[in-house]
Amino acid sequence: MLLFLGARRQAGHVGAHVGGEARIVRLWCDYAVLVSLVVALAVGLPGWLA
Amino acid sequence: MITVLRLSLPLAIWLASFSGVYGLHGLMCSSRWAGPPIGLSERGLLIGAAILAIAVQSLCLVVLRAPKWRDPDPAMRRIGLALAAIALVAAIWTLLPPTVLASCM
Amino acid sequence: MNALRRHRALSRIWASDPGLRGWFTTVNHTDLGRMFLAVAVFFFVVGGILAMLIRAQLASPRSAFLGPDHYNQVLTMHGTIMMFLFAIPLFEGLAVYLLPKMLGTRDLAFPRLTAYGFWCYVFGGAMMVFSLLAGVAPDSGWFMYPPLSSTIGAPGINPDFWLIGITFVEISAISAAVEITVTVLRYRAPGMSLSKMPIFAWYALVTAVMILTGFPPLILGSILLELERAFGMPFFQVAAGGDALLWQHLFWLFGHPEVYIIFLPAAGAISTILPVMARTTLMGYGWIVAAAVSLGVLSFGLWVHHMFTTGIPHMGLAFFSAASTLVAVPTAVQIFAWIGTLSKGRPSLHLPMLWLLAFFATFVIGGLTGVMVAIVPFDWQAHDTYFIVAHLHYVLIGGFVFPMLAALYYWMPHFTGRKTYFKLGNTAFWLVFFGFHGTFLLLHWAGLLGMRRRIDTYEAGQGWEAINLIASISGFVMAIGFALVLIDVVINAVVAIRGSRDPWKAGTLEWAMPTPSAPYNFASLPHVTSRDPLYDDPELPVRLARGEGYLGDPGRARRETISVEIASGAPRYITVFPGNTALPMLMSAITGLFFLGMLLKTYWLVPISASGVIACALYWVWSLGGTTREGPLPVGRGPDLLTAAETADPPGWWGSIFLLLANGTFFGSLLFGYVFLWTIAPNWPPPNFAEPGLGIGLTALAGAALTALGTRWRPGAALLFAAPGLVALAVTGVMTLMLVPDPTAHAYDATLWVLIGYGLLHQPWHS
């Protein structure tokens, strides 16, 4: 997504420059971060509780 | 978006509190499948959680009536208040009787 | 520009391609709505034929008409088709066709997504029907409980058709739901605030959000069960730390909201049609909206009432019994509002009204038996008997099919532009009405006499013979009635005389256009000031045709409409829609290959087709927007507006939010499964569970921080920091995965695989 957005910016797409598309990509990246942290918590929890 | 949040907040709180109190009951019972039934202190905790959820739900109704938070559109304001009232009734009806009848049988 | 020249210019811009090509390249909501409806009716006919086979088998004791194997397939496919391939797509079709017209706009928010969803539905449905024709249809019941559906109970390919085919079809439901949600919130006529929206749009909005949050648990359950069947990951096997009840929880987390997903659109149609038939306005608009929204949320707290006999603790039963009885309240609010509307007006007994009266008579009975089975002691007696079969048919046929038949006759002049010819419809109505009650009223008694559901035959001498014979004869009477409805529709569509616009004298915007509608809907977009714009201004259609509304000048020669603020309906920006393209159909065909690869276990096809889908998606997104800044453009009325590409909240932003809602519900369901198995299953986690060290934990935290900060700093920093951050997260995922022992040995390890795999599906893709 980030690479794709960069390529669109290079190609001069208005949406990639104005900020709307970057906002969408940021939303999905934030979700990926949240998922990673929750999964890490779920994987680590039994060990911490033991 | 604020209007949509105003509309969805009361029932979202009900859903969260219903899931939370039921989940708490599940966690308590899961450790008691083979042991004695849950005691007075655990039952008290469940009832306390239910009362807390009802209090939050009531607060939501109060906040939605406050001039600072209420919807500028009178029709949407009425719908929002109706939803908050329904959510409060739902919280009282679905949380209090079940927790008073606490049992893991 | 006069009205005729405007019509010609707009038609050139908005029309689908001519001939056969147009069927595959159209992205127009009117065409796709009609296609959705036609395919849904086809599946209704298939599901109805299967119902007749069931009734033929059960008409007499020890019947040899269908053997047990065929009966199980027919029974499973009847439920599956009616739920997944008829009811939900019929709502989608009606919403796709009607919503833009009712909301005063020119198309749905994402026209290509509508087409993609439609073709996924067609290909997925075809997969299911093929299984039936090939004699390998799913046979474990439409609920697919393991172990009946696991490799132990069903070693053949039959359940795989269900698990994979339904997941494929659900792409259609999710995409339609995103489409409907964004359209209702952002694509309305200027001035149409939320409180001035047509009531059907409220119901469609609630239903769409319910689809976004109700379907993911089932998609997750289907994936887990298919992983168990295909790769031996034991999520539902007690001996390996799993639990068969996890499936029931995931299934009914979807399954009970599904009942309301089916009922609410019908209630939306009733709330729209009833005031017009009663020649008045809807009583209690606000209360009805509140009731619909609360039904939508409360319905997610009831799922366990389908599992009262599974050994749930008493307090759990009390929670869900209380919630199940509570849901009767918002339902009753709607019923009373409709009765109030009837008493306020002067009802005329046109055919739509007859179907609505049939709805009242039937649905109220179904609702009351629903309250009966919400009471635990009664449910224990009636569970898995024909009482439940009768109850659910009263709710689903009474609460969905009858209102949809009212909707069919109400909007048929809109679909066809012809006057309706009602005499055959009246005969059909009485046949269906009496046939239905003759079938299902009696089956309540069969259930109370102890007749279990899902049995393929029964012994004589238990007092069930007469009931079943009468039920079967009545079932065939009902089928003849439905056949007459179909014939009536064909007659109306082909030979009836041309009708007038707005034959019912309704006030909503879909009647403010000539019928059948032009591909652009409105020659210019209206400014709305009330819930019934046509009652306020009967001349509105003429003024819109003259181009006196918004975007009446087709000079820019592209598909344009206006997007509005959510609450106030104030104009926000101009959206430029894409033209006709075969890309959605091609992409759904490649998606079909992906699912086919999984079904036939030709796994080499899976990554190839997944790459094809990604390539199509990238091409799709690449073609969005332009490379020239246009600045504010005139729209005919009010201030000039920017195009969507030049704003910070384009339609894709809103689509992403609601897609993430579905995605997050999927993830939440997965976490629920993890916690459920932890609390229920013995030996969880197993002694040799994976323990990622501090290094992996710190790397994950660093990756998370890099990603979050990198996307916020400045545009160049995203690639410099966020992309490596996501790669770091992915690396920690892979390293943890390598620590997890064999995922086929224990459900805990299998769950970790799925959790980490879900994370890995997100991180590299985003970089």
TrEMBL record, chain B:
The chain crosses the membrane at residues 47-67, 79-96. It comes from the Bacteria. The keyword Membrane applies. Keywords: Membrane, Transmembrane, Transmembrane helix. It comes from Limimaricola cinnabarinus LL-001. This is Uncharacterized protein.
TrEMBL record, chain C:
Its EC number is 7.1.1.9. The keyword Metal-binding applies. One of its GO terms (cellular component) is plasma membrane. One of its GO terms (molecular function) is heme binding. Keywords: Cell membrane, Copper, Electron transport, Heme, Iron, Membrane, Metal-binding, Respiratory chain, Translocase, Transmembrane, Transmembrane helix, Transport. Residues 8-529 form the Cytochrome oxidase subunit I profile domain. This is cytochrome-c oxidase.
